[in-house]
From TrEMBL:
Keywords for this protein: Oxidoreductase, Thiamine pyrophosphate
Transketolase-like pyrimidine-binding domain segment(s): 476-650
Function field: E1 component of the 2-oxoglutarate dehydrogenase (OGDH) complex which catalyzes the decarboxylation of 2-oxoglutarate, the first step in the conversion of 2-oxoglutarate to succinyl-CoA and CO(2).
Claim: GTP-binding is one of the keywords in the record: no
Pfam families per record: E1_dh, Transket_pyr, Transketolase_C
Record's protein name: Thiamine pyrophosphate-dependent enzyme
Cofactor: thiamine diphosphate
Length: 810
């Protein structure tokens, strides 16, 4: 069992003194980074700056109880903590400020995130997991300042799960579940629903989580009293305080940001509660100062009065820390011992300034060298074109006049030069063109790689294993296929677990998990409260710690509650760390055609547009859905799988190889061959399209029906274009709103696959009305595309071209 900070603090005075002075030095280094960082922005060397000055002491105290294997989920104010946890250096801090695209120099995001967004690298270069128990871990920060909270819940719950769940390789993710998840949030962001939902869930689940609230009294310029019902968040949270003998609630500790000994005690107690008892703890850090204001975008003098500014100067944490050090003395063996003299602390201050300046200088020179090397490799090639176009010399002159040059300026020069010399076939131009192609590939990788997995485990690499049927294969309800497939999954993958509203005891509302909790226990098959944002957050955090969670959102309409987390967090994990972290969570949901405004929505376009980075899989039946679960559990991509809500009671033949067969992503299926028109659809609408195709056949129109199956990725081998080449007509049928998913599908087919070349008629989309579907079967009929709609509109295409053969219906 791991020891806690309290249990290891039997040290000598000299060691104690050294620790204090190391903390003071680190605090001063962090402060100087904030000061110099602001100057770098205001002098134009960086675009924007947001810093952690004023929060140095509580973060030093928090870092003391942060151990290998622990995780932090925070926001952009925690530079001192990152320094203390060895997740940040002065050089990497400034490299991020300058947006250096080197992973080696800026390992948190390779220049993809603005400064203050920290992360450790959980993955090796090939995408395999590192031993996360051998390092201190920071899950990649995001700017939405409560958006990190749902993920925090999952990071904490993973520890509780690892107390009972073991699998091959699990020792790389947890040591018997003794790890803590640390969260940080600004006091104003506690007004966000994500904060309350996360804390509520943590108190119900009793997970090892410490949340630190940095309370400086403002949310940018808006004071706390206008943010919440009570200015004191600890007072508001008093109802969450656990009672003796109950396994609910949390511990609440309030402490001043400038009181160093009290901070050490607060975090030592918090760790004791959390690591030893698995109790969530809120540490409310009050009287925090913000010496430079919110960010480089403005000055806090605009909204803080002189009295407040004077108080902040007096109660600056580092000022009070210095006072405490100078006033500290203890008698040992009859001799008075002190921690440091004023001169010694002044020397530390000067050393901190030199350290920071040296680190900044190194970071700037390394960043600039990337650009100067690029210029030196390109400029001579552009100069070789001077004689081939009069404007080239002018372009070079304009480039040379730039005081500060960025990569975009180099590329602008090259592209203008290539444009000016278009049509010229010379060795000099060809040489520049070759160089351009080479450097463009480098920058494409720097700025656009890792939106999806690039490892050997990416979903596109999972081979298709077809379902096997025999004479003994039974016709069963669709929900039985998916249920029995889950049974095989849980048996095969002990790291897999599922959780959601009604997912456990009753086996989900559609019985797709019937009997699974009884068989595999309530840790792996669990009920949750009605809280979609944190159901997703549980999935993200668990997946970041090596588990394979299936986060169930009961209905597709309800996925809107967690769309922010899908978009800002899950979809960007691999991208914003340039392959440094991943969260291969599977989001299970069900939707499309049923009854009523809130149970028949198909907001697919919103999911597609906001969640690039997550695979979007839309099986037409439950066998296909089961195959997608099998596929994704072999993959390290995140995915949302939308089961057909009206398919659970429809009969399907159950495959003999449950748990083994796979459905490939990005692969369409032609479910009916035809010669006259290509009908493209997916999900529940497929059955109606097939019905319409049969009716069209009676009218002399041979329709080919294609089930997309996978929206992201979409038809990787461009088979739809081949169908259109044969039929010369294209209809996209969808139950999303007009211009929704159908627009995306059209763009993929007409633009990417260039199928417009084969069309003899305008492409047609048949979609739902723009309102939510009205209730009952009649509401569905008049709100979403019916077979009658499809037959009539597709028939009209043929009437337009050959009215004699296809006379008008109306």
């Amino acid at each position: 069992m791991q020891t806690t900070y309290i249990e290891t603090q039997q040290i000598s005075f000299q060691d104690f003194k050294n620790q204090i002075l190391e903390d003071y030095k680190l605090g001063r280094i962090s402060r100087e980074m904030s000061y110099l960082g602001r100057r770098e922005v205001l002098t134009g060397k960086a675009k924007f700056g947001i810093f952690g000055d004023g929060k140095e002491l509580p973060q030093l105290a928090m870092a003391k109880v942060f151990k290998n294997g622990d995780f932090r989920s925070g926001y952009y104010r925690d530079q001192t903590f990152a320094l203390a946890a060895d997740a940040l250096t002065v050089e990497s801090f400034f490299a991020q400020l300058y947006a250096d695209t080197s992973v080696e120099r800026e390992p948190a995001s390779a220049g993809r995130q603005m400064n203050g967004h920290f992360a450790t690298r959980s993955l090796n270069e090939d995408g395999s997991w590192k031993d996360l128990t051998a390092q201190k871990n920071i899950s990649s920060d995001i700017s939405p300042t409560a958006g990190q909270m749902p993920r925090l819940l999952g990071l904490a719950q993973a520890s509780k799960i690892y107390k009972s769940v073991k699998f091959d390789g699990s020792e790389k993710f947890s040591k018997d579940g003794n790890e803590i998840a640390f969260g940080t949030i600004g006091d104003a962001s506690t007004a966000e629903g994500h904060f309350w939902e996360t804390l509520n869930a943590a108190c119900a689940l009793q997970v090892p989580m410490i949340v630190s609230i940095w309370d400086d009294g403002y949310g940018i310029s808006v004071p706390t009293m206008k943010q919440r019902a009570k200015a004191d968040i600890a007072e508001m949270l008093s109802g969450f305080q656990r009672k003796e003998g109950e396994f609910q609630g949390c511990e609440i500790i309030q402490v001043k940001a400038w009181d160093y000994p009290a901070l050490l005690d607060a975090y030592a107690r918090a760790e004791q509660f959390t690591r030893m008892e698995s109790v969530p703890v809120v540490v409310h850090v009050i009287e925090v100062t913000q010496p430079q204001g919110h960010s480089t975008s403005g000055s806090h003098e605009r909204y803080k009065n002189e009295e407040r500014l004077a108080w902040e100067s007096q109660f600056d944490g580092l000022v009070k820390f210095k006072e405490w050090i100078l006033n500290y003395s203890i008698e040992i063996d009859g001799k008075e011992e002190v921690l440091a003299t004023a001169e010694e602390l002044d020397a530390i201050d000067e050393e901190a300034k030199k350290t920071v300046k040296a680190g900044q200088k190194q970071a700037w020179e390394s960043y600039q060298k990337t650009i100067t090397d690029l210029i030196s490799s390109v400029l001579p090639l552009v100069e070789n074109l001077k004689g081939q176009h009069a404007e080239i010399e002018n372009y070079i002159s304009q480039f040379n006049k730039l005081v500060s040059k960025a990569k975009k300026d180099v590329f602008h020069l090259v592209r203008r030069s290539l444009l000016a010399t278009r049509g010229t076939n010379s060795a000099e131009r060809n040489q520049l063109m070759q160089k351009y192609n080479k450097i463009f590939e480098v920058e494409k990788d720097n700025y656009s790689s890792h939106l999806y997995s690039q490892s050997q485990w990416k979903a596109e690499n999972v081979k298709e294993v077809k379902p096997i049927y025999s004479d003994s294969s039974e016709d069963v309800d669709g929900r039985v296929v998916v249920r029995n497939n889950f049974d095989k999954i849980f048996e095969k993958y002990p790291e897999t677990l599922v959780f959601g509203e009604d997912a456990g005891n009753i086996g989900d509302v559609n019985q797709g998990l019937e009997g699974m909790q009884e068989k595999y226990g309530d840790v792996r098959v669990a009920d949750t409260g009605i809280r979609e944002a944190t159901i997703l957050g549980q999935g993200i955090g668990m997946a970041m710690r090596g588990l394979r969670p299936i986060a169930e959102i009961q209905y597709l309409d309800y996925i809107l509650y967690c769309l922010q987390g899908m978009s800002d967090d899950l979809a960007t994990v691999q991208y914003r760390t340039k392959g440094g972290q991943k969260a291969p969570v599977i989001i299970r949901t069900r939707g499309h055609r049923l009854e009523g405004v809130w149970h028949s929505g198909s907001p697919m376009a919103g999911i597609l547009n906001l969640s690039k980075g997550i695979l979007v899989l839309v099986p037409r039946n439950l066998t296909k859905a089961a195959g997608f679960y099998n596929t994704m559990l072999k993959s390290d991509d995140p995915a949302v799988i939308v089961e057909c809500l009206n398919g659970y009671r429809l009969k399907e033949k159950q495959p003999d190889n449950l748990g083994e067969f796979t459905v490939p992503v990005g692969k369409i299926e032609v479910t009916k061959e035809g010669a006259d028109v290509t009908l493209v659809t997916y999900g529940s609408t497929w059955r109606i399209v097939m019905e319409a195709a049969e009716e069209l056949g009676k009218l002399g129109i041979s329709a080919e029906v294609i089930d997309v199956q996978s929206l992201i990725p979409f038809d990787l081998t461009h088979e739809i274009a081949e169908s259109v080449k044969k039929t010369n007509r294209l209809v996209v049928i969808d139950e999303d709103v007009e211009g929704g998913t159908s627009a995306f599908i059209l763009q993929q087919i007409l633009e990417k696959q260039k199928a417009f070349r084969f069309l003899d008629s305008d492409p047609l989309t048949i979609s739902a009305n723009d309102h939510r579907p009205a209730y009952a079967s009649d509401g569905d009929y008049f709100s979403k595309p019916s077979a009658d709609d499809m037959v009539e509109k597709i028939y009209a295409m043929f009437n337009e071209t050959n009215p004699q053969k296809y006379p008008a219906i109306f």
